């Protein structure tokens, strides 16, 4: 990375307004390309708050200069704003450009991120192939941050299969996603979501006893942390009803 620090260190996707302020503070303490990187994340945080015009304004003021990282992030975040505001076709062009810029510069994490976004905006019939392209890039990467994308991509591939009613294939990918999370020391929340996806697939395959055991274990884990999850409760209601 050309910037000082990494954006993921400041992100809390559950609190985009708080994240925005942290990125603004980081940008105020930086200059040049590092400052521009932080400001791309300000734009992303604004987009998550549905402040799309403000997000575009921030990006409009940024100039990539001679930094491929800034150029790739500009394209990536511009695409995200368009997608979030309901224009996936426009977003796709920016994501595709971000892939090329990142690939040519050897920025593996940004390349995989952009490929993952491409897969979210292509037509339904292209989604599986696009997800597999992103997964292949993540698996071939040497950058640990790029390789961490494997879990999310495997989960997304599982979702494509589940949407098509291919529950056995979905289960296989959800199980691989959990293994990938465990390999990269996923957070308790990340691991819990991965386990929930497996249990969800098991229920849809008619393997309700196994699903019930997993959902009860998830409920117990949440209780041990003083947390609740309505999705776990919903599955338990279905399984115990």
From TrEMBL:
UniProt xrefs under InterPro entries: TPR-like_helical_dom_sf, TPR_rpt
UniProt keyword Lyase, yes or no: no
* Species of the source: Nocardioides humilatus
Keyword Transcription regulation present in the record's keywords: the answer is: no
Taxonomic lineage is: Bacteria, Bacillati, Actinomycetota, Actinomycetes, Propionibacteriales
Keywords of the record, alphabetical order, are: TPR repeat
Transmembrane stretches in the record are: none
Q: Which SUPFAM superfamilies match?
A: TPR-like
Superkingdom assignment? Bacteria
| Name this polypeptide is given | Tetratricopeptide repeat protein
Q: Where are the TPR repeats?
A: 72-105, 151-184
